[in-house]
Design brief:
The chain has an eight-stranded parallel β-barrel with strand order 12-13-16-19-20-21-22-23. A six-stranded antiparallel sheet has the order 24-25-26-31-28-29, with helices on one face. It contains 16 helices and 31 strands.
Length: about 725
């Protein structure tokens, strides 16, 4: 029976079911016609229907009786003129840019390419093969879901502890999770895993990309996969492979349930999003959606030769954020994930690319303007990866006031200092205190700095202290991929060993990194698994390793448990004390015309650090005191907020250093809360003498005690 296509509405874009049928709408400026293609569950095309209505470049139509679960795609007619940036090919099935669910994999054969494979300049020759069977299908979705009153948690960024994690890798080998749920959204939010995260103390998970993505052709050929997911196909659809519910649209329901359950546990969800490029590559790439819907609109092409693409991302293409429709696509996607999926924030991959108006990165670009003015996004977390691969792309410290940034300078300085490099004290002082040199000048606060030592891209923390060279052989690129070998900073000894001294040195160095990270001002981001000493066996670019190289190893061991407990202990100290998560930068000088200072810096001798000491190239040790009586904060009743004072002693020399302790602000004494060198002292509290020896490459955390404090009753910090 022939179907009737009613005019429908141009907005909203995508496929929207209203209980009686579904409205379809897709934007294309240069198309001459658009066909809606319906598919059955066996991947066979059942109907081809013309969308005759076009309003303001939106092609639209309403189909009565079309229900959630229906598979569909578009075929778009228009000029084939690559020299002018037009690559319309009506023989290619295209994924809806606004699809909220996707099913199926890409079939890597010639049919999905818009051109023929016949030598030089082949991208100019139109390919008439039908791609319908080899392209994933868009799914009509029922948005109904029982949120049971769920709302975004709105945890202050200053109070956040972020945990970067891969949905699949986190639970895929966990024997405590039912096998059918391992590696899925439901597996991540299983009570066993939520208990693990709660005990650790983190406040937010930052998920590696979950927008539906594809496996690259060259990886499929080599038997590998795009594990990280920075290869987006659809900006509204959760990745299907992470869903245990394989019914059409099941990924949407399961993702929502994951968010709801994490929120119940007090854990926010931040998405790593990739709006800078797509999976279609350059002029030699496949045609899956944007390239065939309107190439000249959705991609930035070379001004003098639109056949070719601008590439600020190293992937072959760059989304054309200068175009109003592309900007609308990104904003609609962000609002969808906030309003419909209840996520709490975003980390923007290669965010500098989104700010390029013409060529240079522009802080006043349209993207920043519209983000700044959008009420839906006003109180979500916006985190930039503040660089791309183009000229002038390194923009750490240059994003607008409402943005936080991955602080690459923090990572580099902390690594160099603990390696023992000379001349790092001055820069380390900035990094430990929120990087005021980067964020204070434009009105931002310390929590604009997202501090990290390791992330998904690079060595894990255990590998950082264990390998002098990268070992990316499994990536099948002759170990030429990934960052340079010195990414390891030569922290450790090549390979693994059972030697007790070497293992202790490695574990101590990991504790140094974690303690530095958690006790610094700003927002700490822990690379998931570092709290257990997760290894990738020296692979510092495991983007294609969906296997034991990247997965968590849940086998129990004393070393893993000790490191986890140490990390949890420090996180709970941080969460209990405002002194480690200040809202304002330190002033250093006297506060409120009194003699009280908010921070003081000391040499090991007990003398205060002067200009010469800060710049001394040989100096690798220092201590600093955080005065808890100078928080510059008030409670709900307007009363000044007070906290304990802390003294942090840091020694990056390979030998121990004797520190003379400064007077305690309360005229009491200092008590040790943490020592990265002494396993027995990690969780014990003891009174410290006027001097203390800090072992080589280690640090200590001391807290003030009043003269009448009963040390025996003080005990370890309670975990909230």
């Amino acid at each position: 029976m022939a179907r009737t296509v009613l005019p429908g509405k141009p907005y909203p874009l995508g496929a929207k079911w209203n209980g009686r049928g579904t409205n379809f709408a897709v934007y294309s400026e240069n198309a001459t016609g658009v066909e809606l293609c319906l598919y059955n569950d066996e991947n066979s095309q059942t109907d081809v229907l013309s969308l005759e209505e076009c309003t303001a470049f939106v092609w639209h139509g309403f189909l009565p009786g079309i229900r959630p679960g229906q598979r569909y795609g578009f075929r778009v007619h228009g000029p084939w003129d690559p020299s002018k940036g037009h690559r319309f090919n009506e023989h290619k099935l295209l994924v809806d840019p606004y699809a909220q669910a996707i099913v199926g994999d890409v079939q890597w054969d010639q049919s999905i390419f818009p051109y023929t494979f016949d030598g030089e300049n082949s991208d100019l020759n139109k390919n008439d093969q039908d791609s319908g069977s080899g392209v994933p299908k868009s799914i009509v979705v029922d948005p109904a879901f029982d949120w049971t009153g769920d709302r975004r948690l709105r945890i202050a960024l200053a109070d956040s502890i972020i945990y970067e994690v891969h949905v699949r890798g986190f639970s895929v080998t966990n024997p405590a999770i039912p096998e059918e749920l391992r590696g899925t959204y439901a597996g991540l939010a299983h009570p066993e895993n939520i208990a693990y995260l709660k005990k650790l103390g983190i406040t937010a998970v930052e998920l590696l990309p979950v927008h539906h993505f594809i496996n690259d052709a060259h990886l499929v050929k080599e038997g590998l996969t795009n594990y990280w997911g920075y290869n987006t196909l659809a900006y509204f659809a959760p990745e299907e492979r992470y869903s245990s519910d394989q019914a059409p649209g099941g990924s949407v329901r399961e993702f929502k349930a994951m968010v709801r359950d994490l929120h119940k546990a007090g854990i926010e969800v931040i998405l790593d999003v990739v709006y800078n490029h797509t999976c279609e590559g350059n002029q030699m790439g496949p045609m899956l959606n944007f390239k065939g819907i309107d190439n000249a609109v959705y991609y930035r092409t070379m001004p003098d030769d639109p056949r070719f693409y601008m590439d600020y991302t190293g992937t072959g293409n760059t989304l054309n954020v200068r175009h109003p429709q592309v900007l609308k696509l990104i904003m609609d996607s962000l609002r969808y994930w906030v309003t419909e999926m209840h996520v709490d924030g975003f980390r923007f991959d290669l965010a500098a690319t989104l700010a390029r108006e013409l060529h240079d990165v522009d802080r006043l670009s349209g993207f920043f303007d519209i983000i700044n003015q959008d009420p839906t996004l006003a109180d979500v977390k916006l985190i930039a990866e503040p660089w791309d691969v183009g000229d002038g792309g390194y923009q750490v410290g240059n994003f607008p006031v409402i943005w936080a940034e991955w602080n690459g300078k923090y990572r580099d300085t902390v690594r160099k200092f603990w390696r023992g490099d000379e001349g790092q004290l001055s820069d380390l002082g900035y990094r430990l205190t929120g990087s005021s040199d980067l964020y204070q000048h434009d009105g931002r606060r310390p929590y604009a700095s997202i501090n990290f030592v390791t992330a998904h891209d690079g060595f894990t923390m255990r590998d950082l202290v264990s390998y002098n060279e990268k070992h990316n052989e499994a990536n099948k690129e002759d170990n030429k991929d990934g960052t340079n070998a010195n990414d390891s900073w030569n922290m450790g000894v090549e390979g693994d060993t059972d030697d007790e001294a070497i293992n202790h040195a490695r574990d101590r160095q990991m504790r140094n990194f974690l303690a530095t990270l958690i006790l610094s001002q700003g927002v700490p981001m822990i690379c998931g698994g570092d709290e257990r000493g997760r290894t990738q066996y020296g692979n510092n670019n495991a983007f294609c390793q969906d296997n034991e190289v990247s997965w968590y190893d849940w086998r129990p061991s004393e070393r893993k448990q000790l490191l986890y407990d140490f990390t949890s202990h420090l996180i709970h100290i941080r969460r209990k004390h405002n002194n480690f998560r200040r809202r304002k930068f330190f002033q250093g000088a006297a506060i409120h015309h009194s003699e009280v200072r908010d921070i003081a810096w000391y040499e090991a001798s007990g003398a205060e650090l002067d200009v010469g000491a800060w710049s001394a190239p040989w100096s690798r040790s220092l201590s600093f005191m955080l005065n808890g009586r100078t928080l510059n904060a008030r409670d709900a009743h307007g009363n000044p907020v007070m906290d304990d004072s802390f003294l942090i002693l840091i020694n990056a020399y390979h030998e121990g250093v004797e520190f003379k302790l400064p007077p305690c602000p309360c005229d009491g004494y200092w008590e040790c809360m943490m020592n990265t060198d002494d396993l027995h002292e990690e969780f014990e509290r003891r009174k410290v003498d006027e001097t203390v020896i800090v072992a080589g490459r280690s640090m200590m955390l001391l807290t003030e005690c009043t003269p009448d404090t009963n040390l025996d009753e003080a005990g370890p910090e309670e975990k909230d």
